[in-house]
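hey so u asked for the seq, here:
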Amino acid sequence: MAINMLSMGSEQPPDLPYLGHNCRELGLMLRGMKPLAYFLNFVPRELGANIRYWRMFDRHVVAGRFIKRELFWLFNGLEHRRLFYALPDHEWRIDAMNALLNELHECKVWSDDHERRSSELLGYESWQIDHWLAYLRSRADA
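ran it, structure tokens below
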């Protein structure tokens, strides 16, 4: 099954048996339960709420708790930013996630394998990923 990741929202599906990481990244990372956080935005349309949220991460970068990397690129005439925060021993996940995201821009199709790998990099457990993929399939079949 191919998934168009660009159309996926960030809301928590009501029927998943676990809480997603969205809007919980900072707390999970501080507890060592999430090794990588990733944010994407169009540079001219950064929202104040997002900037304030990222500043909370930046405090922990300064303190040495997180590693930060920002990558900018043009896509369809718009400047985009990928913003990554990783735990210090997990910086390799930034490169792995960026490579995976680059595949999306090359092929425009996000497969189950891509979704599984990105979820692993973000710190989801295998059983959570299985539920997530089943949810996406049910949505695609509807």
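Residues 1-9 have pLDDT under 50 and may be disordered. The chain has five helices and five strands.
lmk if thats what u needed
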